[in-house]
Amino acid sequence: MGISFQGDSNSTNIATGATGTSATSDGQNTTAHRQRFLALLLTAGSDTATAIVYDGQSASGTKILKISATANTSTHINIPPEGKVIKENIFVAVTGTASEATVFWN
What we know:
- The protein has strands at residues 10-15, 21-24, 35-43, 49-55, 62-69, 74-78, 84-86, 90-95, 100-105.
- It is mainly beta and 106 residues long.
- The strands form two sheets. Strands 1, 3, 6, 7 and 9 form a five-stranded antiparallel β-sheet that branches. The chain has a four-stranded antiparallel β-sheet with strand order 2-8-4-5, with no helix packed on it.
């Protein structure tokens, strides 16, 4: 599995506990700002993991995509070379016990 894109990209890891978690890619949700969504890597823990990506400050934003990985596996999605323009913020909701999602953005 390989993920490659421009060198000035950022990444944010979102790890779940027993019940799941969610966060914006840059750790803030007070000011809407444009970003480019480049890729997402999802690693499941002891049960199926799901990551839902939204364009917004929370899960009430526009749903962009949803991916899942079965227990103890990983999956990823690469967006075309220039990424998907996100108008407000990249918000990712992750479910699954001991799962992790890494979102790549610019």
